[in-house]
């Protein structure tokens, strides 16, 4: 059953939560995705079968939460995550960040490390509006973006996603790879080498950003794309959780 929580600024966040005796897990979905995604639901079933607490939710402008994706931005989304984790979880949690969700995960590692036991990044995309969109645009393309207030990016699979100028401008205030992040728990990154949306060398940059822990692993899958939602990939994710559980 979907529940709703009101933030102090009247944003309404939709969420679903399992209680369990074992360590809690929080799933952070990607840009323009929501808590009904394949990975979120697969991990929820695994969490239920293994008696783990589990929290999944929709950012502002996503899914059943209030707002629209064109009028909200990264600052809203990581604040949604921080708020609901503080309000709805006890003790330290394992955070699983998918794509943009891993960017939010890194922000939370900086802001609320006392609430986090371990980090799992799936095709992580920190700072992506700057690194993968803004930095690759020509001067004329940037002028068009500012004029039209959005830009469209086409991917090899034929999909096209619109990104607002508000999001790109806001992202410049929330970069996570420009300074070191101090974190003491285990970190596991999983990235497809055939990912055409977020190149896997971004995971290498994340590894170099972290200080304070030597327990960092990177799993690269040669033929995997961005979604990591095939059944063997979903099983790999839960295997990662199993491995991390032995360390915390």
Structural shape: globular
CATH hierarchy, class: Alpha Beta
CATH-assigned homologous superfamily: Alpha/Beta hydrolase fold, catalytic domain
Instruction: Examine the coordinates and then state which fold CATH places here, giving the name of the CATH topology.
Output: Rossmann fold
In DSSP terms (H or I, runs of 4 or more residues), the helix count works out at 8
* Rg over C-alpha atoms, rounded to the nearest angstrom: 17 Å
Write down the domain tally: 1
Measured by DSSP, the beta-strand proportion falls in 25-35%
Helix and strand element order: EEEHEHEHEHHEEHEEHEEH
Oligomer: single chain
Quote the distance from N terminus to C terminus: 30 Å
Structural class: alpha/beta
Which spans have pLDDT < 50 for at least 5 consecutive residues? Answer: none
By CATH, the architecture is named 3-Layer(aba) Sandwich
Estimate the mean pLDDT confidence: 96
Beta strands, count: 12
Helical proportion?
25-40%
Biggest beta-sheet profile = 8 strands, mixed
Strand order of the largest sheet: 1-2-4-3-5-6-10-12
Q: Could you explain how this protein is built, in words?
A:
35% of the residues lie in helices and 25% in strands. It contains 8 helices and 12 strands. The protein is an alpha/beta fold and 248 residues long. The protein has helices at 38-49, 74-88, 100-111, 128-133, 139-148, 165-171, 201-209, 231-245; strands spanning 3-6, 12-18, 22-28, 52-57, 93-98, 116-122, 150-154, 160-164, 181-182, 187-192, 210-211, 216-221. Helix 2 (74-88) packs across helix 3. It has a single domain, classed as Rossmann fold (3-Layer(aba) Sandwich), CATH 3.40.50.1820. The longest helix has 15 residues, at 74-88. The protein is globular and about 55 Å long. The strands form 3 sheets. Strands 1-2-4-3-5-6-10-12 form an 8-stranded mixed sheet, sandwiched between helices. Strands 7-8 form a two-stranded antiparallel sheet.
């Amino acid at each position: 059953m979907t529940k709703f929580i009101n933030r102090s600024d009247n944003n309404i966040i939709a969420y679903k939560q399992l209680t369990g005796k074992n360590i809690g897990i929080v799933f952070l979905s990607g840009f323009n995705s929501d808590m009904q995604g394949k990975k979120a639901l697969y991990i929820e079933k695994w969490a239920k079968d293994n008696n783990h607490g589990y929290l999944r939710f929709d950012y502002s402008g996503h899914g059943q939460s209030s707002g629209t994706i064109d009028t909200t931005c990264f600052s809203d989304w990581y604040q949604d995550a921080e708020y609901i984790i503080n309000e709805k979880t006890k003790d330290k949690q394992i955070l699983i960040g998918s794509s943009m969700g891993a960017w939010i995960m890194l922000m939370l590692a900086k802001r609320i490390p006392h609430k986090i036991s371990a980090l799992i990044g799936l095709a992580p995309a920190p700072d992506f509006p700057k690194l993968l969109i803004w930095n690759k645009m020509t001067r004329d393309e940037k002028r068009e973006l500012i004029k039209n207030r959005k830009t469209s990016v086409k991917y090899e699979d034929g999909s096209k996603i619109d990104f607002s100028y508000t999001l790109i401008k806001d992202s410049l205030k929330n970069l996570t790879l420009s300074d070191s992040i101090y974190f003491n728990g285990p970190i596991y990154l999983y990235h497809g080498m055939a990912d055409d949306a977020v190149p896997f060398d971004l995971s290498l940059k994340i590894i170099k950003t972290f200080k304070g822990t030597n327990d960092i692993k990177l799993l690269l899958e040669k033929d995997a794309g961005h979604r990591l939602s095939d059944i063997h990939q979903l099983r790999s994710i839960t295997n990662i959780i199993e491995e991390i559980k032995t360390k915390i």
